[in-house]
Every structure is written in C-alpha cells, then in structure tokens.
Amino acid sequence: MIEVTAAISLGDDEPQVRAVRASGPGGQHVNKVSTAIELRFDVRGSPSLPEPVRARLYKLSGNRLTQEGVLVLVAQEHRSQELNRQAALARLVDLIREAAKPPPPPRKKTRPTYASKLRRLEGKAKRSGVKAARARPRGDD
Predict the structure, then answer these.
(1) 39: closest CA among 2, 98, 100?
(2) By CB count within 10 A, which of 23, 41, 49, 128 is most buried?
C-alpha cells in the first residue's frame, strides 16, 4: 500500500510503472539503457480515490491526463532507474495530496468604507497640488 494521506491509500498494483529510454544528451549510456520511468495511474477507475478528490485531480492533471482518464507521469531526471521510479511515485503522491486539499472558500466581495474613499480623494488632491505647484506660472499678459 502507498500511503498518500490518512484517508487515502493506493494499492501497490494501481500505479503501473514501465521503464523507457530517456531522451536528451547522455552519449552511449542513454542509447542502451532504459532509465526513464513512465508511470500510468487510472484516475477514472481507481477505487482508492473519493469522488471530490478525483474531480480535483482531473483539473490538476491538465495535459498529463489521457482521454481515457489515465494520468501519465514521466521521470527521467536521474541516471538510475530506481531513483526515477521513486521520483515518479513521489510526484504522483504529491499531486493526489494537492487534490485531497479542500478548495478555499470563495472570496466575499467587500466595498471600500466611506472613510477610505475620503482618504484616497484627499491624497489625490494633495498630490495634484504638489504637481500644480511645479508648473510654470501662467502669465496673464
């Protein structure tokens, strides 16, 4: 079992891990060793996720989610297959933890107080006076 939160645990067989060849520079090593990890997690079919968490995970996943509802994460930042596997699992757990957080309450609209409006207008008038004093005096010739 993979412990995500106190309420959510994933079965060991839920995330499917596959080794693939890494892209990018690396010389001969990158061409002959499959060190990158592709992790697939079926968000739609997972029995471990409550429905609100599943919905938020859909939004958080963005373009990493396939049309079938499978989340695909690729980890290739390390040269070791095992470190990449751990990194991919850690990213999956972080993503699910983020989705498990309840959304913040909606913001309540407030209106400025009368006193704050007066302070703003007084400040504007004062600044206007400062700028007007800099101007060249108008000659009434």
Answers:
(1) 2
(2) 41
CA pair distance 93, 80, nearest whole angstrom? 20
Residue that wins the pLDDT comparison between 13 and 132:
132
Bridge partners of 42? 70
State pLDDT tens for residues 65-96: 888 889 999 998 888 889 999 999 999 989 98
Task: Tell me how many domains the chain contains.
Answer: 1
Query: Which CATH number is 69's domain given?
Result: 3.30.160.20
Residue 134, domain member (yes or no): no
Confidence of residue 141 (pLDDT cuts 50, 70, 90): low
Residue with tokens 């010389």: 27
- What residue numbers bound the domain in which 51 lies? 2-100
CB 20 within 8 A of CB 36: yes
